[in-house]
Give the backbone structure.
Amino acid sequence: MSARIYISRDSGALCVGAEEVATAFRKGAEKRGLDLEIVRTGSRGLYWLEPLVEVATPQGRVGFGPVKPADVEGLLDESEKHHLCLGLVEDIPWLKNQTRLTFKNCGIIDPRSLEDYKAHGGYQGLAKALEIGPKATVEEVVTSGLRGRGGAGFPTGIKWRTVADTPPQQKYIVCNADEGDSGTFADRMIMEGDPFVLIEGMTIAGIAVGATYGYVYIRSEYPDAIEAMEIAIREARKGGMLGKKIAGSQYDFDMEVRAGAGAYVCGEETSLLESLEGKRGEVRAKPPLPAHIGLFGKPTVINNVLSLATVPIIMAKGGTFYRDFGMGKSRGTMPIQLAGNIKHGGLYETAFGITLGTLVDEIGGGTRSGRPVRAVQVGGPLGAYFPRELFDTPFDYEAFTAADGLIGHGGIVVFDDTVDMAKQARFAMEFCAIESCGKCTPCRIGSARGVELVDKIVAGEDPAENLLVLEDLCNTMKFGSLCALGGFTPYPVMSALTHFPEDFGAKRKRLEAAE
Ligand SMILES: Cc1cc2nc3c(=O)[nH]c(=O)nc-3n(C[C@H](O)[C@H](O)[C@H](O)COP(=O)(O)O)c2cc1C
Ligand code: SF4
């Protein structure tokens, strides 16, 4: 008798015992003389169900989870009648209600197999790019309306066009996989679960702008992602999809992985370039833009993992197909990451326009602690805290800006009613002080003064006056900092003050001060 099962090798699944579960299945099958094929995949992103085991059946994959090694004997005996049976994985509402474009193959394919990637539609985007040529490829990405998923939301196609328009010379594609935002893991999931889609995206970018070499700068805290990317790059090279004359075309493109230097600011694009060049990760003044003078002084496309990994489906299905999802100027889908104190945490890819409340209450199922949700921080450590009153805000770049917040890399961190928002505001300033590259005064000095001010306000030391000073300091940081680390730290601080003044013991005093 033979059977095939799928178990994730994603580091989120490994953390909760996926390796031990796979070993238990191997041993159990040996004991029974069962011919069991265990395919190691990425994660589907339903993290509360990991380790998720999927069994191939004629109807589709049937899921079981969360599985512990002790469950394996029982599963081998009674399978579909087992109490951990979730039915067909594709029919689990949490998954079924998503629109998976960037993540279409994640959790499904074997991330180490180029053949499997191709069997699931891989490299159709590259074929299209080769057919229509570099100029039309850039325009297809412009048409799609894709905006950078790293945080700033800059149109990807416009960035590519700028690099393509520079005179022919050595150019580079740099993938920003530093993923430092709190509550985010989408880049890691793609690299571990579908690395070829990133390789394909970078290859298409290279052809489009005339670059022949690429670097993936992966945070050093992601050893599994580094390994997965390195294996996939070797496989792609072996299969003729990297190196000279890729896929038999006239184009050359190759790439390598570089491990990050372990600082949040190394995710800032110019600091990342400094780090890639072997220097200390310090922010460069702009202009010049990296598109003109980037890595080693050459024109460089620098894009987030998700931006590049979305390009293959845009090319395969067309820019207008992608553009048809979303709202306003936020086109396509966003891989949203639900984290923190949340019942159903994981990766939820959906078209822009869904409200924050739907994401937190309905999809996330509220808090894991069972207590009421009090605040959510969206967009990483530089993102604003949203109170329940703003839960009707749609996931859209402009709507978040209008609410004094940001989407950033799509991370949502949930807090229940035990959170102390004054502590969170202090933490934002402290984080900035620790992570500041030190190049500009508002951030380097301002963040240290910010910590002191929050401490004084909470201690009841001239709160009205210190609140005004804190607001003034936030404005100086916002408008006077060289990069968004200092420039956006005021967002979590001011949102905590605005929406949760009671935690600063200062509501009345604030009003008094304003009078
Ligand atoms: C302090 C700081 C940290 C950042 N960290 C990241 C990061 O980890 N990953 C990322 O893609 N972009 C990060 N960014 C944004 C990058 O500077 C840049 O906008 C992005 O890599 C461009 O790619 P995109 O257009 O595809 O988003 C960060 C920015 C700042 C100011
Ligand atoms: S804002 Fe902070 S991190 Fe950015 S350049 Fe200035 S000192 Fe460096």
